[in-house]
Amino acid sequence: MRRCKPLLGTFVEITINDPYSLHQLESASRAVDAAFAAIALIQHLMGFHQEDSELSHINQTAHLHPINLHPWTAQVLVAAQEVHQHSNGAFNCGVGHRLVAAGLLPQHPGVRAHQFGGIEDLRFLEPNRVFSTRPVCLDLGGIAKGFAVDQAVQVLKNNGIKSGMVNAGGDLKVFGKHSQVIYLRDPRQPNHLTEIGELQEGAIATSSLYFAKRDHYRPSFIINPFASPTNNPYIEFSESYSVVAPDCLYADALTKVLILSAGKTPSCFSHFSAQAIALST
Amino acid sequence: MNWKPNSLALFGVAALATPIAAYAKIYVSVEQAQQLLLPNHVLTKSPLLITRDLQEKLRLASSIRHPFQGDRIWKAQDGSWFIVDEVVGKHEMIHYAVALSPSGTILGIEILEYVESYGYEVAEETWRRQFIGKSANSPIKLNQDIQNIGGATLSCKHLTDGVKRVATLYELALKNQAPKAP
Asked: Of B78, B85, B84, nearest to B101 (Cα)?
């Protein structure tokens, strides 16, 4: 069984490899529905575009008063802080205003400041309660998709699915005893595919600009968090950077760290059991 | 995690890349999508003649150029709708189904098939026609073994425009057909 829905701004595909008889078809179908629902919830909680998402609440008021969070939002923020810390700041979600300035994300009323802090400014009072020491403009676009893939896989497993895959427009996770041959697009020509290996019980995420640049010219959506407010923060690159890791959340976040290191495997990769793949042009 | 990299690929990557002219993924048939989006509903085909005026309004609202086909509309007894449409990008064509509640709320979206093509014009009618009427039970034989493509995220913006077009269709043409409350 394979189904696909538009979510997280891309096409999310769920594949189930389990053999099933006709009467099991319905329960497999329900499992897939539940996995899609989990992804929709993550989009609702962590979307930058939605003014009423928890992420938007953080951006609007976390510096004014503490905010209660859904455990999943808290989990993503904690992971974002973890990657931020281990990458010495190379991964930072506090770049939303840069993407807004480039027209890549919408401007919301109530999120304006002269200077924004970063993910490091969040303080957890309780596991699901957070405040910020400075105004922030966080965008979880670089990590939430990976988390959504992980959660969808978890929901499938909880519903008794043994083997399958969740692929959110190129960021994917494989689970169960079946290993999967993974193809990557050639960054010079996205219609050329390279078989890069075989993956079992693991995830791979990729960052490249070939689709972003195909139809329209816009600044890169990859932001250098170290750029000073007056410097051009948009990192233009033609390579394709992938990260293989046990969880898609970390694979997703670490692709940005890999871009900043221009493809040289960053030292924090061993901490996350991650491997780097760079396709040059 | 068990990752077996293709060692050849990691060294001379570009040389080993295989070009694909086209590939298609068929997810679910129209009937399966009806079951998934509007379970336990009896659906009746309810085709609509799309006037030139309506066609133009749909185009303006969605910025989709190719005409909407009014013969893929179904109605449930409670006034829900099931509509099949397609969006055509430069390199991809996506057939999809949208279910609407009697009041026009989007109940769900399901992708029926996704076709990616290079070296052809996807928009060309002869190219598109070969996929119409295919179902999950009669898959197209185009690079079928290539299933797991990683890579940069493909945007679903075209599809968002398509769903906007269906929502506009409801507002302009379907809404007034809704049955009166008993």
From this structure: B78
